[in-house]
Structures are given as C-alpha cells and as structure tokens.
Amino acid sequence: MDVFATASALRLPVRLGQLLAAAACAAAAQAHGLPEAPAQPPAATAPSLPLPPLPTTDEDRTVAEIDGERLGSNALALLLRYQRMAQRGADATQLLDEVIEQRLLARHAAARFTRAELFADQRVAFAPEVSAEEKLAGVLRTVYRERLPEELAAEAGADMEKAIIAQPPLTTQQLRDVLGDPARLRVEYALTPEQQQAAATLSVLRYRLPGGVEDSLSLADIYARQNVQGRISLHQLDAAFLAGQAHRRLAELLAVDWAARQAGAAAVAELRRNLLDREYARALAEYYGLSRDIHAASAYQAALRNRIDQAQVGRWYDTHREQFRRLDRVRARHIRLADEAAAARVNAQLHKDGSNFADLARRHSVAPDAAGGGKLGWLARQDKADWFTELVFAQPPGQNGLAVREPAAADAAAHWEIVRVEEQAHGYFPRDSETVRYLAAQTLAEQQARADYEALRRRLRREARVRLAANTVAAKGDRP
C-alpha cells in the first residue's frame, strides 16, 4: 500500500493556489507515476476509519526509537491522517511498522551502495531529495486542506507578493554565460563544477517566509530540482520557465513553513525523512530487480542469471515443461491469386467451413500446386522461415485466412495468398534451446533476487533494536 502518494490539487486563491495545487501537485503526480488523492472525499464513500486529530507543537511525544533514532507521534499522525484521507482507511500499527522497515532498508541502502548504483536513472529523473520534497508538500497540502489555503494566502499574499523580497530580472546573456550556448550538442544535460559554482552565485528569487526565515533561490537551486526535460528547458535559456520553477519552489517552501508552525519543525523534518526513506527503500528493491517496471534492467539479477548452469535450467524445465509447448507442424492449403481484385472475388466465394476451398484453388490458384487443390501437406517449423511459412504458422486452424499480399514494393506486381490451416501438431522447445535457457535463467534469477531481498529484510529487522514507548524489543524478522 502506497501511503506516500502525491497529494491532490487544492482550490487556493489566484496565483498562489494555482502554483501550490496544479503546478506542484499534479506535475509531481505525473512525474512520479503516483495516484493523486481526491480534493474532497465523496459523501457516499467517506473514510470508514476516523481521521486522527491534527497534531500541535506541544504534543509531539516519542512513540518509537530505531537504534536510537526517534520517531515522533506528530509525523506519524500526519502520515496516518493523509493515508486515511487519500486511501480510505489505514491501520496505525501497520503504518508504524512500514515506517520502521523503510528506515532500516533506506539506512542499509545508503551505507551499502553509491547514489549511482541506487539511482541509475538520475541523469534523466528527479533526484530522490526532490521527489521527497515534492511529496512532503503534497502530503501537507492534503492534511491541512481545510486551513492552509486561506491562512497561507493571508500570510504570503494571493500572488506571494508578501513573501517575495526581490526577483532580479535575468538576461539571456547572463543565462548563456552560466549554462552555455543552447545550440551546442550535449551528451548529457548536467552542470560542470565551474558552471555549478557560477549558477550558485546567480540569484533567481529572494524571499522571506512568514515564519521568519529569509533566503534566496539561485539558478543552481532550481537546476538541481529538475529532471532531464526541465534541464533541457534551462539550457535553452528559457527565462520564463526558470521564473515559474522559482515560484513553484517558493510555493512549496511556504506550505512546508506553515505546516511546521502547526505540527512543529521536528515533525515536518521527520516526515521529510520518512519520505526520503521511501525513495531509498524503493531504489533498493529496484536494485534487486523487484521493480514495478518489468522492463527495468537489474545488474543484480543479470549477475545471478550468468551464474545459472545447464543443470539448474534442466531441473526447472522438467517441472515447467508445459510452458514450452510450441506449434511444430501444420497441415494446410492455399490459393495464390494474381492480384487484389481476384483475391477479393475468391475470398467472397469461400464457404466458412472450407468445403469448397480445394475446388476454388483448382479453378483460380496460379500456384504450381493448384491441380492438387492448393494442398501444401505438412509444413515443419523452421528457425529461419520465409514469409509464407510464417503466414501459414500464424493462421488459426479451421478458418479461412484473409487475403495477404506478398512482400513487395508498393508499385510492383505481387501475388496474394489465402491460407487455410486444416490441422496443427504441437511439441516442446528442446531442453537445450536458447528459449528455454533464457526463460529459465530469467525466472530463477528473479526468484533468487526476491529470496535474497527478503532475507536482507528479515535480517535488518532481526538485528535492529526498536524501542516502542517504554519497552525495548527486537524487530521481528518474520513480519510482513
């Protein structure tokens, strides 16, 4: 169950509302492939479980410690409230268990692997910190949707004019000096160390949060928050896009600052950590090849596949032989016509049961076997079959096939073929075939990767010391 899905759009006043809701929330949902929470739950499908009360800064008690790291009640209350608002029900005990496990997995991932190993797609995707920050703002906007829009608009202004101290106009030349010539071909869209240093000195927007923090956003800050599409826009010196991204980021900062003053800065920081834990835990699962994307490559599973020998393949084949049934031979007839018009006429005359197929072949086919009623006999499967054999093997038995033009240039003369398969004979891929080895190795590697991941998961829980309230217990290795 995904308790961290990006939050829904909110109806906020004028520009601030549009930035907080449509730009940040919907864009984040699209970017991360996560479902959006509904703006308002329909009355007929109200959550079956009550919403926990909104936390306040003076009630953030410790509910657990993971090897000395504190988990507070306020951050968990925000997550629980969000989950029940967005997903129609959640169990507080299960949520705490998930947060603990994700912390353990994330901590292991960060210590064991480099960022390049965990986030192989970071050259084109969002950095994990950016994903976590966007989801943080989304969760807070959903949890506080009854109060945040009006109160934040009153504090910062509907157009954030009370929060913006200055927004220096940037010229195309200034951007070119830092980002380079937009016409230059690039293998990768990334800043060099020199460009990074220059971008950090170029202020895009200076702001003051209602909570008192005064800071600025640099070009480097905005660049770091982009995926490859956003970086391309910046390298195209799109000043409007840059300004829009700065406003979007300020809208997120305003929402987070407001929520920190309601639930406490520590609770919001912990919530941010929980969401970042999720990014690392997800990346660890993907490293093992346990991704939602079945086409995603896994170096871990590739190494496992390379170690699988023929004996393992053979044992797996023996217990899964039915998966390797294939069509070995077909018995068929055909009618070859000189052109499309003739093919259409003959096709219209064919009986559905094929009872006149042989007769029409003798009368109209231009193939050498016309006198035999277009009889092809049994055709065997071939590793490198010609187009006609492929056509015959693709036909279902007991049906008249559609007229098919032989491969030829559009303006060239070509025959048309009508095929009827009368019988099929099935067999099995040989035990030592490449097909068997590929599928067996792929399945066995995935099974081993899943077992290794589950063993790691159990070990981390077993070795961790988790303090729940006043009791110290070892995390259970057999928990789901």
Quick structural gist:
The chain is α+β, with helices and mostly antiparallel strands.
Relevant terms:
single chain, 480 residues, alpha+beta, Chitinase A, domain 3, 3 domains, 4-stranded antiparallel β-sheet, 18 helices, elongated, disordered N terminus
Please outline the helices and strands:
Layout: H1 14-32, E1 62-66, E2 69-72, H2 73-87, H3 92-112, H4 115-118, H5 128-143, H6 148-156, E3 164-166, H7 172-179, H8 193-200, E4 203-208, E5 214-218, H9 219-224, H10 228-235, H11 239-263, H12 265-287, H13 299-307, H14 310-319, E6 325-337, H15 340-349, H16 357-364, E7 375-380, H17 387-394, E8 404-405, E9 416-428, H18 434-463, E10 465-468, E11 471-474
Antiparallel strand pairs: 1-2, 1-10, 3-4, 4-5, 6-7, 6-9, 8-9, 10-11
If you had to describe this structure to a student in words, what would you say it looks like?
There is one protein chain. This protein is an alpha+beta fold and 480 residues long. The protein has three domains: 14-287, no CATH class; 299-319 and 433-474; 321-428, Chitinase A, domain 3. The protein has helices at 14-32, 73-87, 92-112, 115-118, 128-143, 148-156, 172-179, 193-200, 219-224, 228-235, 239-263, 265-287, 299-307, 310-319, 340-349, 357-364, 387-394, 434-463, and strands spanning 62-66, 69-72, 164-166, 203-208, 214-218, 325-337, 375-380, 404-405, 416-428, 465-468, 471-474. The strands form three sheets. It has a four-stranded antiparallel sheet with strand order 2-1-10-11. A four-stranded antiparallel sheet has the order 7-6-9-8. A three-stranded antiparallel sheet has the order 3-4-5. β4 and β5 (214-218) form a beta hairpin. α13 (299-307) packs across α18 (434-463). The protein is elongated. The two termini are 12 Å apart.
